[in-house]
Design goal:
mainly alpha
Amino acid sequence: MGRFLIRRALLALPTLVGITGITFLVSHLLPADLVLTNLGDRAAETPGLVEAFRHRWGLDRPVVIQYLVYLGNLLRGDFGTSIATNRPVLTELAFSLPATVELATVAVIVAFVVGVSLGVVAAVTRDSAADAIARGISTVGVAIPTFWFAILLVSTVYFRLGWAPPPGRLTSGLAPPDPVTGMYLLDSLLRGRFDLFPDALSHLVLPVVVLATIGVGFVTRITRASMLEVLSRDYVRTARAKGLTGWAVVLRHALRNALIPVITIGGTLYAQLMSGTVLTETIFSWPGLGRYAFSSAASLDFPAVMGVALVVGAIYVAINLVVDMLYVLVNPRVRYG
C-alpha cells in the first residue's frame, strides 16, 4: 500500500503540470481581448495605459516565458494576482474552496446514505412497489435539470412559503465565526458560536437538497444493479442456507461486496461537486469555487482561472487516491503492490 501511494503521488505531478500547461495555453489563445475586457473601450484606446497593463501582467513577454515564470511562482506557493480584484489568487481560493467543500461534503453524505438505502431496498424487494418507487426516485434525480430545480425551490420554499432563509451562507447581519477551516458549520462549533450553527445549517438545506437529489439518482441505480448481481452469488445462497436472517445476509455479506462500484460513483460525484457547481452556487448566492470560476472566466482573469484549474485537478487526483484506498477497506481481497 505504501509503494502504491508513493507511485500515485509521483504520477500526480505530471498530471498537474499538464493541467497548468493546457489551461495556460487555452487562456492565452482565447479570441476575446483581455485588455478591452479589463480596461474598457476608452481606456483601451490610450496606448500608454494599454502598454502599462500588458507590462504589469507580463503580456508583453513570449508565451513560453510567461508560462515558465508562472511555474516558478507556483513552486514558491504563489498562484499569482487576480486581474479583476488585484488580490492574491491563493487568498481568494482559500475563501471560496471551504464554502464548496462544506456544501459538497454534506450533499454527498446525504446522497450516499439515501441512495444506498434506496438501492438496497430496491434490490431486496425486486419488482415490488418499493422497487418501483426507488427506481422512480432514481429516474427523477438523474433527469431533473439542476437550474430548474434550484429556481423552483427558491421561488416556492423561500419566496412563497417562507420556510427557508434567504440565499447565502448566513443571515444578513450575522458575523461569520473566526475562520479555522473556513466551513461555517465546523467553525461555529470550534469557536463556541453555537448560535450560528442552526443558521448556517438552515442555509445549507436548499442547495444540499438540489445537489443531493442528483446524487441520489446515480447512487440508487448503481447500488441496485450491484446488489442484484451480488445477491445471485453462491456465497450469498450459502449464507442463507446456514440459517442467517435475510437482512444479516444483505448487510454483512452482500452489501460490503456491492459497495466497490458505489464507492467509484460516489468519488466521481464528490469530485464533480468539489470542482464547482456553478448554477447552484449562483442561484443560492453561495460564494464557492464554481461561482468564483465563473466570474473569473467572465472577466478573462487568467491567473484566477488557472488557479481554479490547478485546484480542481488536485481535487480529482486526491479523491481518486482516496477511492482506491477505500477499495482495500471495503474488500480486503483488493491489494496494491
